[in-house]
Amino acid sequence: NEKEQIEKYLSQIRKRYSVAASNNVGSHLSQRQRIYTVPQGIEKADIIVFLLIDPVSIEKEKAMIQKLKQNNNYYLAVEKDAFIVFRKKGI
């Protein structure tokens, strides 16, 4: 089940890392101390999480993903269907 895989991945992110997440995934991370909703937090967050399912924001999020793929500070850690995760290099 894709939802279970996403929840498992998110639950394994260490608490010390800051996370920026698309709005539809933020609720799974709300207990964290350092959480941002994209686009806020991009460039600050250790981990950036997208779930591309919101038709209103999907094009903006796809554009952010393309920029992150070119960003030397981050690498693409997960790209599974609509679930995409970038991690800051060195963490």
Summarize the topology:
Layout: H1 2-11, E1 19-21, H2 23-26, E2 35-37, E3 47-51, H3 58-70, E4 74-80, E5 83-88
Structural description of this entry:
This protein has 91 residues and is an alpha/beta fold. The protein is 30% helix and 26% strand. The termini are far apart. The mean pLDDT is 92.
Could you say which overall geometry the principal axes of the C-alpha atoms support? globular
Relative helix content:
25-40%
Number of helices: 3
Mean pLDDT: 92
Unreliable residue stretches: none
- State which percent range the strand residues make up: 25-35%
CA gyration radius, whole angstroms:
12 Å
Keyphrases for this structure?
91 residues; alpha/beta; five-stranded mixed β-sheet; 5 strands; 30% helix
